[in-house]
Amino acid sequence: MTTINLNEGFRTFQGLPMRLSDVTITLQNVLVTVDRLLNKELDLDAFKAQLELVVKENPPLTLRDVCLNSLASPRSEEKLSGTEKFRRGLLGHKMAEAQEIELPAEDITLLKRVIDETYPSPLVVFNAWLMLDPSDTATKEPSSKKKEQPS
Q: Is the model's pTM score more than 0.85?
């Protein structure tokens, strides 16, 4: 089990705090939202209220935000069983209420996968993966050691 701090904030490559609006208001997200509104998959009033809150308060983007959004946003081509939907919902419920959470390896693997599928931004994936699994060799910087030249 690994203990995860869900309030840890994301940072830009320059080390500056990322804000929720940095990933909420992007062209891709706007186009997806317009499509969902046109297909009546999203309530217009609820969307307006959420957007106003994001723009007005512009809170820092946290690991909790990214995890919860990813768990609640399955890809349209992904067909989840009821059991898997419940598993994701239960994990999201636990994460929504906690400051820190102990997660088994299988939940960390799931979160890394759904975050990768939900967010096209390398910056979001980079931050999330480092926070979820700092020991993962995929998140380590490649070795810069050069082979020694024979004398």
A: no
